[in-house]
Amino acid sequence: MTVVILRRVADLRTMVRGWKAAGQTVGVVPTMGALHEGHLSLARAAKAGCDRVIVTIFVNPKQFNNPADLEKYPRTEDRDAALLATVGVDVIFAPLPDEVYPPGFATGVSVSGVSAPLEGAHRPGHFDGVATVVAKLFGMTMADRAYFGEKDWQQLQVVQRLVADLNLPVQIVGCGTVREADGLAMSSRNARLSESGRKIAPGLHREMQRAAEAMRAGVPVAAALEEAAAAVQAAGFEAVDYLDLRSADLLEPMTALNGPARLLAAATLDGVRLIDNIAV
Ligand SMILES: Nc1ncnc2c1ncn2[C@@H]1O[C@H](COP(=O)(O)OP(=O)(O)OP(=O)(O)O)[C@@H](O)[C@H]1O
Ligand SMILES: CC(C)(CO)[C@@H](O)C(=O)[O-]
Ligand code: BAL
Fold first, then answer.
1. pLDDT means per 10 residues in the chain (280 residues)?
2. What is the spatial distance between Cα 123 and Cα 135, in angstroms, rounded to a whole number?
3. Integer Cα distance of 55 and 15 in angstroms
């Protein structure tokens, strides 16, 4: 079985209108391709929750603050299509940049507050690009439900804010982070790690877990975070962009563990920027 690949919004909408006329629910899984088990878990969740499933594959230039990162982003469409066939998705929507951003495109969506810290502070303009393309993908696909990974925890919060604030008629479903056996969060960017970097990479999650345990055991938050950041660098990471404890709204760092919290981190290894987060 192969999956139909559509490139034009008009063709996609014709297909979705047919499904809707038949009373079927539609799920969308937005991706940038180079698919792995994390993406497939979202597609399976969509299959379980909706009659029809669209996976979008679009490397969105507007969300890359670093041109080299955009250039080096892995593109593996044939392999992606074969993987999605095994899950039984109905259609892949893989538009060309001009279809998404035609000449004269002049609109941007910007979510303030939750977009500002963490990834937002280190990747200026990133979440404006994400919010803009996600709003467009919701409009293009007319999906009833959209599936996002908790691996990109802050992105999930930004998308939930976007949908609430603009009254978009789509339900956001968050799905747990899929990890390699050694704890490394699956990510398309992992493919760019060297052999030695791949061995070092699980150190980020390991030190985050250690910090979480320490904080639960009463070690002061600042001391636990400082020790974890130092351990990540000692493991071989080149830099730690942030390693922060935040409350649900992500707005302010938490200085004491006095309620539900999320530990979020970004660090660079082999020039590849990895992110992760866990509940504390
Ligand atoms: N390990 C994972 N577990 C669960 N969901 C994931 C995982 N990795 C990515 N996703 C989700 O898949 C969707 C598409 O993500 P994307 O295409 O950027 O993949 P990625 O592997 O996160 O790539 P990147 O290298 O850019 O981080 C997002 O909702 C993202 O959160
Ligand atoms: C949601 C998304 C597909 C928007 O381009 C992207 O940010 C991603 O892959 O997480
Ligand atoms: N996975 C989030 C998309 C990005 O890093 O640009």
1. 95 98 98 97 98 98 92 93 98 97 98 98 97 98 98 98 98 98 96 97 98 97 98 98 95 94 98 97
2. 20
3. 14
Q: What's the gap in Å between 2 CA and the centre of ligand 3? A: 27
What percentage of the chain reaches a pLDDT higher than 90? 96
**Looking at ligand 3, which residue's alpha carbon is closest to its atom 2?**
152
Ligand-binding annotation for 1, yes or no, is no
- Token pair listed for 88: 């039984």
32 annotated as a binding-site residue: yes
Statement: the pTM of the whole predicted model exceeds 0.95: yes
* CATH no. of 4-175: 3.40.50.620
Class of domain 190-279: alpha beta
How far CA 29 is from CA of 24, 65, 210, 231, in Å, comes to 17, 23, 32, 35
Q: What is the ipTM of this complex?
A: 0.97
Ligand 3 pocket (Cβ < 6 Å) reads: 63, 152, 155
Query: pLDDT per residue over 37-80, tens digit each?
Result: 999 999 999 999 999 999 999 999 999 988 998 998 889 999 99
| Cα 211 to Cα 231: distance, rounded to the nearest angstrom | 10
Rounded-to-integer distance, Cα 205 and Cα 186, Å: 11
**Residue showing tokens 């035609």:** 102
Domain residue ranges of the chain, discontinuous segments joined by +:
4-175, 190-279
Q: Of the candidates 272, 232, 275, which has an alpha carbon nearest to the alpha carbon of residue 66?
A: 272
Catalytic-residue membership of 122: no
- Secondary structure letter of residue 184 according to DSSP: P
Q: Distances from the Cα of 26 to the Cαs of 5, 55, 271, in angstroms? A: 17, 11, 38
